[in-house]
Specification:
Belongs to the LuxC family. By secondary structure, this protein is an alpha/beta fold. It contains 16 helices and 20 strands.
Length: 472
């Protein structure tokens, strides 16, 4: 396999930001290939990708194959302890560069980086393993079994070879992907997003400082190429090199991967999702309406509404006066500074503003609180709007009952925040049947129970290659 020649069509006078790669334990520097970030149009330069160095031949056993999971967890925890923003120079440098290419404001990105050291805990890592595997020992060895007829065999969760298309809407989400890849002992290539081609390498460099020769480090590579580049993807996305493509991304990115799928190579897709909220009439009682509005705003504003779990549609049951009072309070709460949201997000696109203006002119029951200036906008309608609410915009939909709102749930609905939380029990089966993947109490969209499912699956279970040795 030869090294691909890459050219850079973008020419600008400004000096591009330098992006490093990390290939199987080794830092790779250089700026031969020029790119432009998707969100902010900023130029950056990367080394050329040497596919010979990036791809481990199948004749070479995975470096982590015989490393106990307990040792992998210890290593990840030690690396996590070094992800202290105050003392970690790689994170500090990643912040300075990431804010130039990522639409999230600096304060939010810095808050995420300051939380990074809490992402890799022994309790959380063990919980992920224990909730995903009936017998976690299968990750470390062949597990003997005997069926009801006395036939004997053995199973092993064999390390996969995976390409991870990392998400670009949260700069620290790569830490979870790195941990997952290590826990299943995979050979990993992380395709970094143009909105953050820095954090993943910062994490891997931190791990290399712990032990540059550790099998976890030698199992990891992080590089950037422009999504859809057939010269690279047409070579990498082949079953002789990789088993799985773990795809985080928009619809176009997912469709691009699909064309490479076939026998021997699978996609594990965390595709685009929409999250919603559901609020019963109990939420409009004057004694609680302020807290309920704050909880709803917390879910809407998460990552300035860039995250899949950020609520966009709020279905409400109750009298019109109470609903309108809630909308007014919600708009006020959307304008607050929060740990993962700024008081002012980017203004709404012009085409969305035009749609909102048409709604107010033509819809007798449509009311709007706020302006499309990124400080929080609430649109009250009787049916969900046709556009995708963003930039701290909430579409409050007045329904006869929360039961009636279930018809608006489908397989693209990820997280549903409910108030009062006691109503989850009566709704969750119907929501699951409609296609939803997660139900939480209102205000808890960004909070997680350790070891839970993601997008309707237990990812670690999907990642491994199950190998069976049978003696029937």
């Amino acid at each position: 396999m030869s090294v691909l020649e890459q050219t850079a069509p973008v020419e600008t006078a400004a000096e591009p930001i330098r992006v490093d790669h990390f290939v199987r334990g080794r830092l790779v520097e250089g700026g031969a290939v020029r790119h432009r970030s998707r969100d902010l149009g900023v130029d950056f330069a990367t080394p050329q990708i040497d596919l010979n160095a990036l791809v481990a031949p199948r004749s070479e056993l995975p470096p982590l194959l015989d490393v106990p999971v307990s040792e992998i967890i210890d290593f990840l925890v030690e690396a996590g302890q070094r992800m202290d923003f105050e003392t970690n120079p790689y994170l500090q440098a990643a912040l300075e560069h990431t804010v130039k290419v990522n639409p999230l404001p600096r304060r939010v990105v810095e808050n995420l980086f300051r939380r990074a050291k809490h992402f890799l805990t022994p309790e959380g890592l063990r919980c992920s393993i224990e909730s995903s595997f009936l017998n976690p020992a299968a990750l470390d060895r062949w597990v003997e079994r005997t069926d009801m007829h006395g036939n004997r065999g053995a199973l092993r969760a064999f390390p996969p070879r995976m390409v991870h298309m990392l998400a670009g809407n949260s700069p620290t989400s790569c830490i979870s992907s790195i941990a997952q890849g290590a826990l299943v002992k995979a050979v990993n290539v992380f395709k970094m997003p143009s909105s953050d081609p820095f954090t993943c390498v910062a994490m891997l460099r931190t791990m290399a400082d712990v032990d540059p020769n550790h099998p976890v480090v030698r199992s990891m590579s992080a590089v950037y190429w422009r999504g859809g580049d057939e010269r690279i993807e047409g070579t990498l996305y082949r079953p002789q090199y990789f088993d799985k493509i773990v795809a985080w991304g928009g619809g176009d990115a997912i469709k691009n991967v699909i064309k490479y799928l076939g026998p021997g190579i699978q996609m594990v897709s965390f595709d685009p999702k929409t999250s919603i909220s559901m609020i019963g009439p109990e939420g409009f009682d004057p004694a609680v309406i302020d807290d309920v509005a704050d909880a709803a705003a917390t879910d809407v504003a998460t990552m300035n509404q860039e995250a899949c779990l950020a609520s966009r549609f709020i279905f409400v049951e109750g009298d019109r006066a109470g609903v309108e009072a809630f909308c007014a309070k919600l708009q006020e709460k959307l304008g607050l500074d929060r740990e993962t949201a700024s008081a002012v997000a980017h203004p709404l696109p012009v085409e969305v503003r035009d749609e909102i203006e048409m709604l107010t002119l033509m819809g007798d029951d449509t009311k709007v609180w706020g302006k499309p200036d990124g400080r929080g906008l609430v649109i009250l309608t009787d049916e969900p709007v046709d556009f995708h609410p963003s930039n701290k915009t909430a579409n409050v939909v007045h329904v006869a009952s929360l039961d009636a709102a279930v018809r608006h749930v489908n397989v693209a609905t990820q997280t549903i925040g409910i108030y009062p939380p006691e109503r989850k029990l009566a709704l969750r089966d119907r929501l699951a049947s409609a296609g939803a993947q997660r139900v939480v109490r209102l205000g808890g969209a960004a909070k997680h129970v350790m070891g839970g499912a993601h997008d309707g699956m237990l990812p670690l279970q999907r990642f491994v290659h199950w190998m069976s040795d049978e003696d029937a």
